[in-house]
Amino acid sequence: MQLPEATNFIEQIINEELEAGKFESRGNEIAVRFPPEPNGYLHIGHVKALCINFGVKEKYNGKINLRMDDTNPAKEDYEYVNSIVEAVKWLGFEYDNLFFASDYYEKMYEIAEKYITDGNAYVCDLSSEEITATRGTLTEAGKESPYRNRSAEENLRLFREMRAGKYADGAKVLRAKIDMASPNINMRDPVIYRIAHVPHYRQGDKWCIYPMYDFAHPVSDAIEGITHSLCSLEFENHRPLYDWVIEKAGFPAPAPRQIEFARLNITNTLMSKRYLKKLVDEGFVSGWDDARMPTLMGLKNRGVPPMALRNFCAAVGVAKNYGVVNIAQLDECIRDELNLTAERAMGVCSPLKLTVTNYEGEEELPFEINPADGSGATRPVKFTGTVYIDRSDFATEPPPKFKRLFKGGYVRLKGAYIVRCDEVVTDGNGNVTELKCTYFPETRSGSAVKSEVKAKGVIQWVDAKYGKDAVFTTYKPLLKDEEYPDQDYAERLDKNSISTCCGKVEPYAADCEGKSFQLMRTGYYKVCPPKDGKAQLSEIVSLKDSFNK
Questions:
Q1: Residue 13, pLDDT above cutoff 60
Q2: Strands 351-356 and 386-390
Q3: pTM metric for this prediction
């Protein structure tokens, strides 16, 4: 059979298995899944797993299930389910089926009873602390539970009583009976069921015992006919248990195969739902969709294009070894995508008035919508001769090679004319309040007339008559440092990660709520709903390129 070219180690494994005929009994169909727990919103770290799994589905014309791993009722809710579904669709991925691990509770219970009957599981009365204390270390074997050799009949009775609600939380657990001397601690009689008198958001009060992840996950994969369980590297030591669970359950071949890849880690970025939830619960951010959050809903709210995230994960690639990616690489991918799709507009964050003293009347000037798309399309921009420029584009004492405006200097107003600064007006404290300039009519942008007047710099501007008051919101990463280790994140949080300034923006951009723009020489911004009569623009990413390709 003709196989697609493998571009990473996962695809290489799949190709080898297909060539060996492993999946002939199922028509060589490859099936994968994406199984998030609905206890929080998906974040950018999940995008890599999504891209890998959906990439396999598309490359091998297979199928993929979106499965909610909802086996921990104390932390799960429909809010998170809905947010996960929305995030996956926002990224542009289409799954074949939506399943829930809780759909398989009855089947899982039957398998657990089979384990007991076959001598592969037992009910244990040790507390969680006692189980941990007797599990052993990397160099010492664990100690067998005194309840390990109960008869199958007694274990079945106790397990059924657990299901019936006879015992309190923590009173008993069901443990797999494997090997307390195994060099892999995960194989030392792991807990596969625990008692939890907590209502389930889908099952209600039907259950008071719940399967553990290491049992529920492989069983769910096997029930759904998954061929490859693609997961992050921290589950590598769990693979022998994954295989054991499926084998002892008696599922027919071919069994699902677990393959691990390095998770996505990004500097200055929290990559833990537990910590992100803490930010939400403690009010540090406005919610899961706060524009500073690395959640997919936060990135969507900020205005990040979904293709930028997919391109970023493609650039990072699929690796087996742990690594950390600089956040500047993510910014570069966002910038590259917006450069192609975002219209251009003009806005100034720190307005300084500029009056062209020899200009009268007003006119409409053609402004190119997006030079990067190659269309050459334009829209009209009003010019009345009195405008605002950004204060950073003027210097009373210009540094060397300063290409913007200073007294006696020339600059081009973007899409308009070259002007010369003749007079600098200041207030009583010496602060510059206005620039009085002369314009040169023959220098109009696009004019066929050649002018001897030249300018080295081009600056943005907003017309004083037609410009709108605007509030510009900018962001910094939530973490101040570039270290990823799981130290106390509270000490690393940047409490000044959000800032605002009041300026001016051209009316076209102010009226395009929800749209993204490149504000010339400033950054990419999303237009948000107006507030207090002012346009609101939220930064997506700066124009500064700090990533070394």
A1: yes
A2: antiparallel
A3: 0.91
